[in-house]
C-alpha cells in the first residue's frame, strides 16, 4: 500500500511539473498539439511508474529524449533522474545527469540562440536537476549507512546468541564430564564388590552366578558410559571433581591473588553433586568480582540443610567505571544453565545498597 502511495505522489508531481512546462511552452507560442502532448505525457507517467525502480537509467534516457520534444513529459524527467541517483551508483548517476545537461543546453541553444532567455531557462533547469540528483545521492548514501548499521546489529546479535549458546553447551559438557567421573567411580565399586562376591567359595552357587552377572553388567555399563561421555573429557580435567569442602581452598587462592574475601560456610555433609554445583557458583562469582570490582571486599556465604536446600550468596560493592579485565558475559549464562539443570534458582544483579549480589538456591535431598 505504501509503495503505491509513493508512486501516485510521484506521478502527481510529474504531471504538475509537466503542466507548468507545457503552459510555459504554449505561452511562448510553441509546442505540439494538445492531443500529442497529452499522449506523450501519459506515456511518460506510465513509464515512470512502471520502470522507476527496475530500469531507472533506461527510463531517464528515454524521458530526456521525450522531454526535449514535448513539454508535458519534461515533468517526469527530474523524477527519473532522482530515481537514477537513488538506485544506481554515483558514477552512473553523474553520467546520466551530464547527458541530460548537455542535451538540454544543445537543443535550447539551437531553438533559442545565445539569448538571455536561453541562459535563464538552461541554468534554472540544470540547477533543478542537479539539486534533485544530489538529494537522491544523499538519500541513497543514508539508506546504505542505515543498512550497514542494521547488518552490524544483526551480526552482533547473532554473535551474542552464539556466545550464550556456546556457554550453555560448555556448561552441559562440563556437567556431563562430572557425571562421568561420579558414575564411573560408583559403577567401578559395584563391579569390585560383585567380583569379590563371585569368588567367595562359601557363597551359594546361585549368588555367585548372580554376582557374576552383576559384575559383567557393571563392566559393560562402564564401557558404554566411557564411550558415550568419555569423548567430552579434556585432558586437563582428568582429575577428581571439586566439592563444597574445596571452597575454603578456592577462597584461599583468591586471597593469595590479592582479593579480600570473607567466607561463611555453615553447611556440612552436602551431597557430592550439590557440592560441585556450589563450588562452581562460588568460583564464577569470585572471577566476576576480580574482573569487574577488583580491590573490593567480597562476601561469600554458603548455608543450608537437608530438605530446605543449599543457598550460595556472593556479594561485593559495585565499582564505578569499566572493568579492569574484559568479560564475555557468558559466565553467568553457564551458571544459570547449571543451576536450572540441577533444579535450582539463580538471581543476580545490583541491590539498592549499592552492591552486586549473586544468590543461588540448590535442592538438597539427603
Automatic annotation (TrEMBL):
GO terms for molecular function: ATP binding; phosphorelay sensor kinase activity; protein dimerization activity. Residues 171-236 form the Signal transduction histidine kinase subgroup 3 dimerisation and phosphoacceptor domain. It is an enzyme of class 2 (transferase). Its EC number is 2.7.13.3. InterPro entries: HATPase_C_sf, Sensor_HK_TwoCompSys, Sig_transdc_His_kin_sub3_dim/P. GO terms for cellular component: membrane. Coiled coil: none annotated. This is histidine kinase.
Amino acid at each position: 500500500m505504501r509503495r503505491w502511495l509513493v508512486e501516485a505522489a510521484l506521478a502527481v508531481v510529474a504531471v504538475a511539473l509537466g503542466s507548468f512546462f507545457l503552459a510555459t511552452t504554449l505561452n511562448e507560442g510553441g509546442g505540439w498539439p494538445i492531443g500529442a502532448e497529452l499522449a506523450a505525457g501519459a506515456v511518460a507517467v506510465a513509464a515512470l511508474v512502471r520502470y522507476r525502480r527496475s530500469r531507472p537509467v533506461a527510463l531517464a534516457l528515454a524521458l530526456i529524449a521525450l522531454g526535449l520534444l514535448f513539454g508535458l513529459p519534461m515533468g517526469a524527467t527530474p523524477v527519473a533522474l532522482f530515481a537514477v541517483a537513488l538506485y544506481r551508483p554515483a558514477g552512473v548517476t553523474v553520467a546520466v545527469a551530464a547527458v541530460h545537461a548537455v542535451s538540454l543546453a544543445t537543443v535550447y541553444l539551437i531553438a533559442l540562440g545565445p539569448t538571455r532567455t536561453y541562459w535563464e531557462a538552461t541554468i534554472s533547469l540544470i540547477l533543478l536537476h542537479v539539486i534533485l540528483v544530489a538529494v537522491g545521492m544523499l538519500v541513497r548514501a543514508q539508506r546504505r549507512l542505515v543498512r550497514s548499521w542494521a547488518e552490524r546489529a544483526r551480526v552482533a546479535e547473532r554473535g551474542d546468541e552464539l556466545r550464550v549458546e556456546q556457554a550453555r553447551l560448555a556448561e552441559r559438557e562440563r556437567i556431563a564430564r562430572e557425571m562421568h567421573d561420579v558414575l564411573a567411580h560408583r559403577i567401578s565399586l559395584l563391579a569390585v564388590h560383585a567380583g569379590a562376591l563371585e569368588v567367595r567359595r562359601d557363597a551359594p552357587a546361585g549368588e555367585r552366578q548372580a554376582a557374576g552377572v552383576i559384575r559383567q553388567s557393571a563392566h559393560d555399563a562402564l564401557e558404554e558410559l566411557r564411550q558415550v561421555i568419555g569423548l567430552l573429557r579434556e585432558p586437563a580435567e582428568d582429575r577428581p571433581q571439586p566439592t563444597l569442602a574445596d571452597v575454603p581452598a578456592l577462597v584461599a587462592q583468591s586471597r593469595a591473588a590479592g582479593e579480600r574475601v570473607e567466607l561463611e560456610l555453615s553447611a556440612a555433609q552436602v551431597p557430592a553433586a550439590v557440592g560441585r554445583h556450589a563450588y562452581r557458583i562460588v568460583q564464577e562469582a569470585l572471577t566476576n568480582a576480580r574482573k569487574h570490582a577488583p580491590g573490593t571486599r567480597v562476601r561469600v556465604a554458603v548455608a543450608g540443610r537437608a530438605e530446605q536446600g543449599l543457598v550460595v550468596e556472593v556479594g561485593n560493592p559495585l565499582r564505578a567505571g569499566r572493568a579492569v579485565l574484559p568479560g564475555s558475559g557468558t559466565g553467568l549464562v553457564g551458571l544459570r544453565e547449571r543451576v536450572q539443570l540441577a533444579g535450582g534458582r539463580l538471581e543476580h544483579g545490583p541491590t539498592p545498597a549499592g552492591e552486586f549480589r549473586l544468590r543461588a538456591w540448590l535442592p538438597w535431598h539427603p
